[in-house]
């Protein structure tokens, strides 16, 4: 049996008297796209912050593979191959798409950018950046400045910059928020193309996206995981339908 890519054991995070996450245990399999859904205030973003190291748990553990990483903050977990897309993205609006992705790749490799050197001086970095840009469907705009991008393209750039850091596990917190239907469709196709290449944890309110992408889904309600299973298991789970999906589960 393959080791888990990412797991949590009894995660608890308190804010005053409120348990934002309440004994959360998850098993994320290598290469799967695992969606986390739930109503507003369910604790989804807190959970992502606990996974990424931006918050420390009051109780419980986070493991990457078999390695306990609860004592590591963000950069330590990045070093273990776990990235939240925006963590690595200091996007420069006046730079091109290619330049931004190159800078992300250079940071990951510990290369210091010299302003007097052209990008062509970093040939291997440029090739890596172009590969990731093509993977994210941004080839046509790779020489455009970020300030000229549509909103959906900018979100794709954030993912491209994360991929340039060669993650094993990618955390995505509502990557389709604010997108038009066309942009959302492009984002779904991008994530579908990444499935199997990376382990992806996706928090998303768009149920069409979740049901078209997820291998498995966990449902968080009031900080607790009330169900984990396949799309059909979650669609038909009575507690999930009552607490969150409602009539939409039969749509």
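Sequence proposed for the structure above (251 residues):
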């Amino acid at each position: 049996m393959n080791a888990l890519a990412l797991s949590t054991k009894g995660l608890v995070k308190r804010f005053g008297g409120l348990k934002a996450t309440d004994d959360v245990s998850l098993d994320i399999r290598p290469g799967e796209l695992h969606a986390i859904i739930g109503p507003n205030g369910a604790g989804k973003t807190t959970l992502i912050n606990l996974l990424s190291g931006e918050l420390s748990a009051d109780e419980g553990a986070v493991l990457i593979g078999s390695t306990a990483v609860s004592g590591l903050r963000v950069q330590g977990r990045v070093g273990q191959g776990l990235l939240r897309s925006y963590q690595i993205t200091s996007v420069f609006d006046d730079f091109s798409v290619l330049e931004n992705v190159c800078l992300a790749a250079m940071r990951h490799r510990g290369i210091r950018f010299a302003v007097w050197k052209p990008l062509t001086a970093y040939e291997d970095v440029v090739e890596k950046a172009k590969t990731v840009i093509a993977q994210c469907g941004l080839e046509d705009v790779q020489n455009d400045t970020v300030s000229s991008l549509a909103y959906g393209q900018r979100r794709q750039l954030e993912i491209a910059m994360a991929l340039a850091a060669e993650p094993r596990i990618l955390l995505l917190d509502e990557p389709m928020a604010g997108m038009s239907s066309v942009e959302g469709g492009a984002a779904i196709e991008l994530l579908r193309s990444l499935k199997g290449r990376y382990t992806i944890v996706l928090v998303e309110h768009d149920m069409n996206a979740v049901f078209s992408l997820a291998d498995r889904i966990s449902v968080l309600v009031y900080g607790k995981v009330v169900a984990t299973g396949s799309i059909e298991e979650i669609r038909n789970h009575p507690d999930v339908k009552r607490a969150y999906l409602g009539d939409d589960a039969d749509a």
